[in-house]
Specification:
about 0% strand, mainly alpha
Length: about 210
């Protein structure tokens, strides 16, 4: 049985995919920063939010938390993004990516309200898994770009004659390979980083 060569992996995300991934990643980082500033100045209801965070944090732990994370972020969210990419509207599949960028921004802004010193350990502890998860979704979005483009071309052909051709099956296979070899492993890595490594980083500040 042959091992997957590095060249085959790199071929999945060629130069244009890398460019799109960087653009989407820059977009998500900007959204996170803007959301952090907005949530910081809006003064949210901190007592109610703390109760909700405590209830969520006690739902799962250890490998159970990893499993829940992978099922939700590694299966449910990518499926949602894929189905949104089948709608002939450009960049609609970015909704989940934008939401992923907004949530950390809200939490960071709220923590800054509570205490700047207390927020730094939480920020650094959540940074590894947040960046890893965002990167995974940015790569997925870069792959879904061509799926959405093909769908829009097919709709365009229904209304006017065009000589452009599309290869949906080939692009779909490329999407599946990219998801299985790159996106899903990144999500699994993010799950372990959040479950185990985040606590370790947080403990370094204590």
């Amino acid at each position: 049985m042959k091992f997957i060569e590095v060249s085959r992996i790199t071929n999945i995300i060629h130069q244009q995919y890398q460019k799109r991934t960087k653009q989407f990643l820059l977009l998500t980082l900007m959204i996170t920063i803007i959301t952090t500033l907005i949530s910081y100045f809006l003064t949210p209801n901190l007592s109610e939010l703390n109760q909700n965070l405590d209830r969520v944090s006690n739902d799962a732990a250890g490998l159970s938390k990893v499993f829940v994370y992978v099922v939700n972020n590694g299966l449910h969210v990518p499926l949602q993004m894929f189905f949104l990419s089948l709608i002939p509207i450009p960049f609609l599949y970015l909704c989940n990516l934008i939401l992923t960028a907004i949530i950390p921004g809200i939490l960071f802004g709220i923590m800054l309200h509570l205490s700047f010193a207390e927020s730094l350990p939480i920020f650094f502890a959540s940074l590894p898994h947040s960046i890893t998860e965002m990167l995974a979704y940015c790569i997925l979005a870069a792959l879904l770009y061509d799926i959405n483009k093909v769908i829009r071309l097919k709709v365009k052909k229904c209304f006017k004659k065009t000589t452009e051709t599309s290869y949906f099956f080939k692009i779909f296979l490329q999407l599946v390979k990219g998801f299985l070899i790159i996106v899903l492993p990144l999500i699994i890595l993010a799950a372990f980083l959040e479950t185990y490594f985040a606590d370790y980083i947080y403990s370094l500040f204590k």
